[in-house]
From TrEMBL:
Residues 10-20 have a biased composition (Polar residues). Residues 88-122 form a coiled coil. Keywords: Coiled coil. This is Uncharacterized protein. Residues 1-49, 203-226 are annotated as: Disordered. It comes from Chara braunii.
Amino acid sequence: MSAAVPRQQCHVSSATSAVPRQQCHVSRAASAGPRYHDGFIIGPARPTGRRADEYHHRALALLARTEAEVQRQAVAEADPLQAEAEAAAEKQRLQAEAEADAQALRKEAQELLQRHEATSVEKLKFWFFEPSADHDDATPEEQHKGFFSKLVTGLVYICNHQQSELEKQHQELKKQHQELANLRRTVQNHEDATRALHSRVQDLEQAAPKPDADESSSAPSTRQLEQRVDHVVTMFGDISTFAAPATISKQLDTLKIEV
């Protein structure tokens, strides 16, 4: 009975001796994966090469997205300027086309007027009386037609000349209206700039420190100086009866003592 005890103890010891082996086995099994402590990996993790590749790919993707965003913003900023430039060019083109069309219409009207003038003068020439060998004197009817044809011919010349002058005046007035519109825009721009300048000056005046603080700070020193002057005058008494020392050194000494 007593001999069984050592064997039991030995069995127990052998049984208990299996615990370290089990613990070692568990520790070896646990050491096969990463261990965590307070949220941090304290054991071996994935290979570093794979993580570096993934980080490199993510960095390249982020760089590509950043470049795309920068290009998009550049295009968005350039679009208004480009649209404004295109609008200005289109406006100039339309103005040039309108001016060319107007010039062509004026030229065509001038040519039509000249043709009408030549046709009218040719028709009126048939009413002119030209003396011949058989017919020296004109009848009253021929005299009337001749006078009327000369009158109408003069009127045609005058009307055509006046129409040409009116066309020139119209062009001059149109040019003056354009210059007046440009001058009006310039004056408006100057007025806007003047108002902005006045507003800026008012803001600066309101933001500038007021002189009350300086006056209040300098008031004590001014009062002190006045008190000192009053004190010196009081000590001197009547300045007209003040007997000055004979020498300059004595005068300085006297002033030092009195002050």
